[in-house]
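Q: What would this chain look like folded?
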Amino acid sequence: MEYENKHILAPMVRVGTLPFRLLAAEYGANITYGEEIIDHKILKCERRVNDYLGTTDFVERGTGDVVFRTCHEERNRLVFQMGSSDAVRALAAAELVSKDVAAIDINMGCPRSFSISGGMGAALLSKPELVHDILTTLRRNLNSAVTCKIRLLNSSQDTVELSRRIEMSGVSALAVHGRRVKDRPRDPAKWSEIADVVSALSIPVIANGDVFDYEHFERIKIATGATAVMVARGALWNASIFRAEGKLSWEDVKREYLRKCILWDNGVKSTKQTLKEMIMHYSCLELAEGKVVTKSQTIADLANIYGEEGYYQFVTKNR
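A: My prediction, written as structure tokens:
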């Protein structure tokens, strides 16, 4: 996978499903990350080719739930992000999906208590030996690219030292979120500390943090010297941030997202979650739109809300 001058969709829990990834790519994202999936979870799945939809599904045994869905169209740009705290388990999980994705990424930045209590995410930032073990195990046994995503440590020097250790493991690229674990989203991203990492490494570094307009891609790239730029909230709020021609209207983006959810049979839970996140940025869930989306029970309900009932009927009738 090439990283030079790439614009990348960041991994986002409950958001980075197939429809949203395809939406971002349609608007110009060169690389798209799926939502983080824990190794334990993917190991409970079996791979199934879904001829009905034209997808490859990883379905949880027993429940029948689709844990991860992808399609051939995104094969060469898709990064599967995994949460793990064990090298052997990480490899077993990665082997299940590696032939269907372009790269495997290990999440080393998630600050949520669930991840940290399980020794995953940001908990790995203080365990360089384990980090090295996981990454080298994956690199030695997989044909696909291996990357990881970290947050800043307590000092720039500490971040650089860990980043050098990660580089030594043989990863293809390193994504750096310019905030520390204790920082909140409202705190400014520390682009200068990402620049310190870029200066210390020879592998591609992906800069992440405070990209909310297309112009910011170039701004953070110049400020940090990073090879590529990753965007999370800016894409969630309006996925057309990736358009060089400028953003489309919020209403158009929501409807196109919903159409993709209908087409790819996305679950109503994750569809609602993403729509609610979009609404909360521009409006309020307590107003009319937010209330009806929150109360909706099916994709058909959502189609009716956004005037896409005709499209819903057409797609479901012709499957």
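The first strand starts at residue 7 and ends at 9.
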